Structure formats: C-alpha cells, structure tokens
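Please, structure for the following, as tokens.
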Amino acid sequence: MPNTTRRISTFALTPAAALLSLVSLSFASPASAQAPSRFPAHATHYDVDVMLHPADQTISAHAKVEFLADAPARTLLVELHQDLKVISVVGANGKPLEFDRDRNNPLDLRVNLPEALVAGKTATVTFEYAGPLSLEDDSPTKGIRLGSVDKESAYLLLPARWFPLTNYPSNRYTSNFKITVPDTFAVIGTGKSEMQSGSGGQTTYVFNSERPSPGGTFVAGALQLTPVKVEGNQVLVYTPPSQTGTASNYGAALSHAVTYFSDLFGGLPDRNVVIAQLPDGSLPFYSAPGLVLISARQWTEKPNQRIVAEAAAGQWWNDSVLPATPSDAWLSDGLSRYSGALFAEEIDGESGLRKALEDFAIGTLMYEDAAPISQAQRLQPFSDSYRSVVQDKGALVFHMLHSELGDAPFRALLHNFYTAHAGKNVDLAEFEKLAAAKYAAAPPPANQPKLNLVAFFAQWLNSTGIPEFKLEYIVYRTKKGFKVVGKVSQELDTFRMPVEVKVDTEGNPEYKTISVTGTVSPFQIETFGRPKPNGIALDPNNNLLKASPKLRVRAAIARGEGLVAQGKFYDAIQEYQHALDLQSNNSLAHFRLGEAMFYQKNYQAAANAFRSALDGDLDANYKWVEVWSHIYIGKIYDLTGQRERAVNEYGKAQHLKDDTGGAQAEAERYLKKPYSEGGDAPGTKS
C-alpha cells in the first residue's frame, strides 16, 4: 500500500488575486456585428462661443455645428445636458428649425430639417442655449458632476455634453472654441490657445483644433502656469497660486509617463501634454487631447504616479485611438487602466504591479454581475459599475492576455495595435484578430496547454462573474519521487483556462500548467522532491482573475466607501456589516463602520466599532487603521465632555508615529484644542 498524504483545502488567495464568475452567462453579439449608430449624422466641425457666469453659476453659448449624414435623415440627433435650455436652433440660411427634447431621455435633442439629408451630404445648424451644469442628479452620469461653474472656478468636461455632441465617446471633429470668463480667471483646454484682449472685466480665450479629435474640455479659475523642464523637455503645469511648489513633481511625473508610453506604444501626434489641477467635486482625473487633469483632492505634494500615468495613457487610448462604439470602451478605458499598472511596475517593480492588480481585483468584485465587458453601453461611463466592469475587470483581462502571450509578444501587440489604429476608431473584433495573429506567431508554450483565444475572449468579454477555486489532492510516493493526484473545482460550467500550479517541495519548487475546464478538472503532477504540507498552490503569481473570501470582504468595504462618498451612510453601513459577516475580525470594516456611525452622530456605536477595529486583525496593508481609530475615539470623548480621556487617545496616536493621511498633525491639533462638531468632513483617511 503506497504512503499517502491527503490535503483538502479551500483555495486561499493573496489580495493581489482575482478571476471570473460566469454566474450569469450572457451572450453578446459578435464584436464585428456592431449595431448601427443611433445618430443619423455625425458632427465634423464646431464653432462654439461660450460665456461663463460665475455669479449665477451658469453658461450661455452659441454652437455652430457642421454635420455629415451617415444615412438618409430628416431629423438630426444630438446630446445636450438636460439643464441647458435651448433658446433657438437655426439652419444655414438663418431660418428657425423645429426641435424638441426626448421625454424619456432628456439628454437627447432632436432637430427637424426642412428637407431630407441624403447620406454623404452636409448640413450646418446653430444652437443657442443657456443654463446651469452643476446639478449632479441631472448629469449625463447621475451623481457625478462633469461640468460646473462657481465664483472660484469652473470646468467643462466633454462628457458633460455642455455643447451638442454626437456619437460619444467615438466622434472626432475639428473645432474652434471661444471661452469668455471674468478677467480673474485663466482658461486651460484642448487645442492651440491664445488669449484675446478683454473688456468690461471679461477676457476671451480661443482654442483651435485642426486635427479631428474629441476636443472640448476646459478648466478655468485662478490657475498659475509653471513651466517645468524635465530631461530637455518642457512641461506646462497649471496649479492654484498656493500650490506652485508642487509643479515640478507633477511635471516630472507626467514627462516620465509620456516618455515610457511613447517607447511602449509609439509616439503621439503631438507630445506636448499639459497637466492642470481639476477643481474638486468631479472625477479623480480626466484625460483630453493634449491635456491631463488631476482633481484637487488627488493633487497631493507627492504625485500618485499611477493616477498620473493612467491619465497620461488616455492620450493614446482615449484620443489617438478611440472605441468604435460605447460597447468597445474596453479598448480605451480598460487599456488605460492597465497602462497605469505597467507604469507602476516600471517605477516600483513587481510590488507596484501587484498592488495595482489587487486594486483591480477588488474593484472587479464590487459589481461583477452588472454587465459583460462587451456590453459596456449598458453602463453609465464613470459610474461605480462602469469602473468595476470596464476599467478594473478590463485591466485584468489585459493582464491575463499579457501573461499568456508573454512579455515581448504582448508589448509588440500593443505597439502594433496603436501604430495601426492611431487616429482611427477600433472595435473588439479588430483587436481580437490582431491578438490571435500575434499569439499564433509566438513560440508554443513548453509542456503546457495552449490558450484558446476564441474561448478566452468569449469567456472574459462576453460573460459576467468570477469563479472561486477549491483544490483537493493526494500525494503518493513513487519509485522516482512523488506524484500529486488531485482535482480543481469551481462553479462555472463553461470555464476554460490554463492554470499554473506551484508545488513547494523539500528541494526546489516545481511548476506545471494544467488545463482547468468546466466545474471539475482532475490533474496529476510528478515531482522529484517531497511536496511540503499545504505546499500546492494554484496560480502562484496571481495572474488570473479569481475570487476569494478575503477579496470579497474588501469589495464589500469598497462599496461602502463609495456610498459614503455619496452621503449614503445607511447603505454604507449595510455593506460594512456584510463585510463583517464574511470576516468578523476585519479591522478595516470595523473602522469604516465606525466612521459612518460617527458622521451619523451615533457616537457610542462609533466608539464600539473603533474599539473593535483595534482588537481586530490590523492587516499590515491597512495598519493606519490603528492610529486613526485612536484619533476618532479621542474626538468622541471630546464631544461627550471627557477631555482627559480624549487627550489620552491622541497621545496613543502620537506614540504610534504613523503619519498616514496626516495623522500626527491631526493628533497634535486636538491635543492643543478639543475637537468640536463640524471639525472635519467625511473622507477616506488613506
């Protein structure tokens, strides 16, 4: 009877892991069979004259638009922010045209032409309109402010539809924008710019784009230019006057990213990219042709290199190469996201890449069943579900493709893809075809199953969900060494992927790749050395998108954090409770629960949660929870008239010497003066 060792275990993953759960399998139409655009004509040129009115937080504008018909049409369709009231619409002859808003979709504005427009013919229409842009509930993406005007600053992002758009996010056009602002404002935006002389306390800025591109993004306010010279190049950095000291760091970060991506993907038509601070209250960052915007909240003294890099990558994947339709957005937003991870690896090595992959895995699990990647049109751009599916899961699909193709073929694929499609629009089918050709030309993998790319793309792009592996095995002694006989199980009937297996032995670790197909996959591995107890691991380098209990806990916490950012404390508390149901001693979940309770002024419950955070696992990745729990408990004691106990907690925070999120300055502040209500606002401390 052979000597045997039996091990049965649930597959435990490190935080950098994650994979696909095809719980709800949906079949998208082939990427090559794109549905026709709902816009019968697309804009080819804009002349827009807009005035900002900071006093009443509105804009007023004239937009002269040249349309080219793609199909016979009697009615033109554009998208315009629903809070902008259309005053008039006139044709090229100056005569009024009939128009109306779609009651079911107030973003849509329809214009009736006096005569039918045949395919290939042009029409010129001028729109006059005015109104506010700041109401988040009326934004094209509900809850996210994409345009705003106030007394201190303004921003007009293209997706706000602050001028009449067609075929977003796919259309390109030439343009002339005239932006009139108070003379205390400067304006930065897309296109070649010049400042015209102003009068009456107003100044007009003109921006011209002769190259067809998705222009029309602008930022205005008290912005000061700081030219930064980096390795012989000059980067223009715009910040509020009080933050000019940060300009050199941001100029260097952007220059490094642009140089890296130029070498990786190929050169931009114009390498001169400006970086500017975006007023708070909008997106964390945004990329427009020749312009990178980083929000005030993210604009710290030391730049977040991954954010700067991801925004910079948008110059390639959200400007030079555009998705053919909204359903192809993975090719732009997913690849921009993954490009940030590649840059993180460039500057921080393997640890930088793994941290990015962990973040993507957590993000993917937040809304894993919202839609398949290939049905991105079902999701609102920039929403939490869109970020989860298109950006985070999309980035991990690119990483898995990278792992299977190998580093050199994958980088060659990206370079060929960009150079072949620069200045064009591309769909999923075109990328899949190029990837298949690159994979077919690559050397076959040694002693391991070859990836079926057709199945790969069908599985990861057209289906939803993420599987979770279980591993069972027995170790037998043989004449030549040892044999591991086992099986991998997971719930997804259509799943098919090669998976690497690592066997830690008493000698060197041994590796083999097995094919995991369907719900149960048996395997056998022969080794020379004796396998160590619990020494067999699937996907040891975490190159697959897979789920684990630990990642699901972090996803629940992340959903709660997103809800807190929207002021939805009750809903956030439910997510934190769900995380604690999965892992009762999770310090981060207890801490976030305490924060939510604190801002609801439920101080006793908040104190209990912070104490539980201190008694929990205190994961090394979130060690800052300890110092901030003491600070919050100190604030609660101050609010309840227990100053001596509050001082004790602030002292404990100082003793830890952890300065994450400015913790030491916060503790010092309230050691000198008791905390009072309204002393700060909800927000993530790390």
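The radius of gyration is 28 Å. Confidence is low (pLDDT under 50) at residues 1-34.
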